[in-house]
Amino acid sequence: MEDEGGSLPGKSDFSAWYNDILWRAEIMDVRYPVKGIYVWYPHGFALRRHVYQRLRDLLDEADHQETLFPLLIPKHEFMKEAEHIKGFEEEVYWVTHGGTSELDVPLALRPTSETAIYPMYALWIRSHADLPLKLYQVVNTFRYETKHTRPLIRLREITSFKEAHTVHATWEDAERQVEEAVALYRSFYEQLCVPIIISRRPDWDKFPGADYTIAADAVMPDGRTLQIGTVHHLGDHFSKTFDITYEDASGEQQCAHQTCYGISERSIAAVVSVHGDDRGLVLPPSVAPVQIVIVPIIVGKREDEVLAHAAALEQELGAAGYRTKVDSRALRPGAKYYYWEMRGVPLRLEVGPRDIDAGTVMAVNRLGDKSAVDRAAIVEEVAAQLEQFRDRLRARAEAELAHKITLASSMEEIPGSVREGVAIVNWCGSEDCAGQIEKATGAALLGSEVRSQYVDPDGGPCVACRKAGRPALVGRSY
RNA sequence: GGGGCAGUAGGGUAGCCUGGUCCAUCCUAGAGCGUUUGGGACGCUUUGACGGCAGUUCGAAUCUGCCCUGCCCCA
C-alpha cells in the first residue's frame, strides 16, 4: 500500500505536515474526486473505530442508548424551526429527484439531525416517566461548505458525527445534562491525552436554535483553535416547534426541555495534530490500532527460533488484551521501525538472538525511551510501559498548551499572543467590544466563562472598554 | 467572500516562457529473481503519467477558453 518515499515535512510547517501525514500514516486518502469528501484508509478507519469506541463506552456508562435515524429529512420538517433554518439553509444539500421524476417533497441530507429526530421524539414521549431520554447516534452528515475544505477538519461529508439528543422535564434538568455532557467530553479527551479549553460561545456564535452553547477547543500546533466538541442547551425551542410534551405527575401537559451535543472526526484531527511529530503519528495506547509491534531481528541461522519467539510473545500479549502485531516482512529492521513510527504505534518490542539468550526483550516507546525488559514478566512490563507512555504523552500535550495560552491585559498584547497561540483577555460581554477586539487583533472572541486550569476565573477591566470584565478566549480558529 | 499559484506514473519532480529532437527526465514506490537483515540493504530485470472538455495549429505536456480538483495569502 502507500509508503514513504522522501519524508514527512517538519511539524514546524504544520500545514504541509498535516497534509502529508494523512496519507503517509494512512489515515485519509484525499484523492476522491469530490471537493471536501475524503476516503478513510483501513488504518485511519481502525483509529476512528477505537476513538469512537471510547466515546460509545462513556455514553453507554452514562445511560445513553445508541440509535439510528434516517439520513433524509423532508423539507417541511426541516423548515419548521426558524433560527435553525437560518443557521443551516446555505449549506444544505437537497435531494430533489427520484430517477428522472422530481420529488413532490424535497429531501434534505441531514446537516445535523434535530429535525429528523424530534418529530419521532414527539411520538415517543408521553409521560414524565419517559424522561430523561438520552439517545445518540454516530452518522455521516452533509454540509455544503463554501470555505476552504480540509480533511477531518472542514468537510462536506462529515463521516463520523456522534450526536446525542436528550429530553428532560425542566430547563434545570437540561442544564444538569449539559454539565454531564461537558464532563463526558472532558474524560473523552483525557483518554485521548488531548487537553481542551472549555468555554461558553458568545450568543452570536451559538448553535442555531439553542439557549446557549458550551464548546471544547483544542489548540493546534500553529496556534489556531479547533472546536472539537459542542454542547447545546436547546431550552424548549424545539420541543415547542415539534410538540414534544409530556404529562407531569399532576396530569398536566408540559413542554419538554432538550439538549444536544456532538463530536466529529475533528477529534481525530486533534489526536493526530497534538501528538504527532517529525516522524509521524504518536497515538495514545487507548486508541492505537496497533498498541505493540514486535520486530523479530533475524540473523543468520536462528531465523526459525526468533520467529517462534516473536509468535509466542504476540500470543501472550494478545491473550492479555493488547492489540499486538508481529512484523515478519522481509525488510531490514530499520525500515520497519520507520514504518511503525509513522503509524504511531506506542510500543515496539525487538527480539533477536541476543535477547533470547539474555532472557530479555528490547522495548522502545514512540517517544524514544528504550529499555531491556524481563521476558518472563513481559505482560506486567508492557502494562507499566504503556501507562508511563500515556502519562508522558498527556504531560507533553499539557505543557504545550500551557505554553500556547497567554494572558493579555491590553489590546496591544493580543496580536502577539494569538500569533502562536490563544489569548485570555478580560471582556465585559458586549458584542461591540468583541467586535473591536476582532477588528484590532485579527482574532475572534471565541468564548467566555473559560474553564481551564491555566485561567484564573477572576476578572478585571475589559480590554476594550475598561468596564468590569471576565476572562474570555481570543484566538484564530479553524 | 476577495486575490494569487498550481495539476506530468502510487508519491515527488524535469520539460512549459521560446509548440516539433518528448514513442516525456530523474528520485521514490510497486512486480519478479537472487544475495541480505540489531535504525530507511544491494544487484539484475520490469510495469506505470501529461486532470477533463473544447479551441488554435501541419503538429500541443507546452498556447487560449471553460470546467473540475488542490494549495497559499487576505477578509
Write the layout of secondary structure elements.
Blueprint: H1 14-24, E1 28-29, E2 39-40, H2 42-61, E3 65-66, E4 72-74, H3 75-78, H4 82-88, E5 94-98, E6 101-109, H5 114-124, E7 133-142, E8 157-168, H6 171-191, E9 197-200, E10 212-219, E11 225-235, H7 237-242, E12 245-247, E13 253-255, E14 257-263, H8 266-275, E15 292-296, H9 303-319, E16 324-326, H10 333-342, E17 347-351, H11 353-358, E18 360-365, E19 370-374, H12 378-404, E20 405-407, H13 414-419, E21 422-427, H14 431-441, E22 444-451, E23 460-461, E24 468-475
Parallel strand pairs: 3-7, 15-16, 15-17, 20-21
Antiparallel strand pairs: 1-2, 4-6, 5-6, 7-8, 8-14, 9-10, 9-22, 10-11, 11-14, 12-13, 17-18, 18-19, 21-24, 22-24, 23-24
Helix pairs in contact: 2-6
The structure holds one RNA strand of 75 nucleotides.
So, the CATH homologous superfamily of the largest domain?
A: Bira Bifunctional Protein, Domain 2
Summed over residues and divided by their number, the pLDDT gives a mean of: 94
Number of strands: 24
| Tally of distinct domains | 3
CATH topology of the largest domain: BirA Bifunctional Protein, domain 2
CATH class descriptor name of the largest domain: Alpha Beta
Q: What percent of residues are in strands?
A: 25-35%
Estimate the helix proportion, in percent.
25-40%
Terminal CA distance reads 31 Å
Shape: globular
Low-confidence stretches: none
Structural class: alpha+beta
- Rounded to an integer in angstroms, the radius of gyration calculated over CA atoms is 25 Å
In the CATH hierarchy, the architecture of the largest domain is: 2-Layer Sandwich
Number of separate helices: 14
Sheet with most strands? 12 strands, mixed
